[in-house]
Structure formats: C-alpha cells, structure tokens
C-alpha cells in the first residue's frame, strides 16, 4: 500500500526520498517494488479483465457478475471464480442492469393516525370537517397524483394539487 502511494506521489512530482521518509518506508524497498515485474496473478487478471469487458460489451452492458461468470465458464470454457469476476468487474467499473421486482402489499395497510371522526362524515357547519384523498392517474408520460380536500358540510372542493409524485408536499400544497 505504501509503495503504491509513493509511486503515485512521485508521478505527481513529489521527491521519492521525502515521500518515503514521511510514509516511513525504505527507499530501497520502493525501488525494488518499482522494478519488480508484474506477478503472474496480475497478468492473468489483466487478461481476464479484457475478456470480461468483451463479454460485458457483448451483452450491451446488461450482464452483471453472475451472468458474465456463467458466460465465461459455459460459453468460453474459462475456469474462474464468481467472486473473482465480481472483483475484476468492480475494479474495471463494469456494472450490470438490475431489474428488481416490486413487492405489492396484500390486504389493508395499518392505520397511520387515529380515526378522529369515528367514520362519521357529517358536519353541522362549513369548515368544521374536511376530508382528503389522493388518486393515481396513469398517463402516457407516467403516473400523476391528485390530492383533494373536501368540505364535508358543503361537499365542495376546498383545495387540490396535482404532481408526478406522492410525497407529503402534494398534500400540503392542496
């Protein structure tokens, strides 16, 4: 780790002797590290990364590590581990497309607030009781949400708001 940092700082113009002294590593050890040829594992990783990049590009950048691994083993006959493929893809900055399934709840949702009117939607005068609702409307451009506030006595809309999200600002704006 220290020798790699010395190499990066030396490339930025810092003197090797000063950098080695600050990081408390020996200068001779750094020069031995710098002159060392790449390990067989590093050479094999570079070749495998090239193949992984080709397989990933062939999938139109949709395959993740499990599918790339399967393509390497079954399609190309290369023996390599799934975690090694994942590590090399991570260092190369390759990611697949993830399609997560949406989980739909079944049954009624638990009440968030207490029922203050005990389900009696009648009022003796205007502006004593308001009711609200949010509706979802699918459109060609996506979903649109409408929040409305109704005066229970007069049955008139007191306020409404439309947005492309169902956050609390939608209800507050209504």
Automatic annotation (TrEMBL):
The UniProt entry's coiled-coil ranges are: none
The Integrase catalytic domain covers 122-174
List the Gene Ontology MF annotations in alphabetical order: nucleic acid binding
Q: Which InterPro entries match?
A: HTH-like_dom, Integrase_cat-core, RNaseH-like_sf, RNaseH_sf, Transpos_IS3, Transposase_IS3/IS150/IS904
* GO biological process assignments: DNA integration
NCBIfam families reported for this sequence? transpos_IS3
Q: Summarize the protein's role.
A: Involved in the transposition of the insertion sequence.
Name of the protein described by the UniProt record: IS3 family transposase
The organism is Modestobacter muralis
């Amino acid at each position: 780790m220290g020798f790699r940092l010395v190499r990066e700082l030396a490339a930025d113009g810092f003197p090797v002797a000063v950098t080695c002294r600050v990081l408390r590593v020996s200068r001779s050890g750094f020069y031995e590290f710098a002159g060392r040829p790449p390990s067989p594992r590093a050479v094999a990783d570079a070749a495998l990364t090239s193949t992984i990049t080709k397989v990933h590009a062939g999938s139109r950048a949709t395959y993740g590590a499990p599918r790339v691994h399967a393509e390497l083993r079954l399609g190309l006959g290369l023996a390599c581990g799934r975690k090694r493929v994942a590590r090399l893809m991570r260092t190369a900055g390759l990611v697949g497309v993830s399609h997560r399934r949406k989980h739909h709840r079944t049954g009624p949702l638990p009440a968030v607030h207490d029922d203050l009117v005990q389900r009696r939607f009648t009022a003796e005068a205007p502006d004593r009781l308001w009711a609200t609702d949010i509706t979802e409307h699918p459109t060609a451009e996506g979903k649109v949400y409408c929040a409305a506030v109704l005066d229970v006595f007069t049955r008139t809309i007191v306020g409404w708001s439309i947005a492309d999200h169902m956050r609390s600002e939608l209800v507050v704006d209504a």
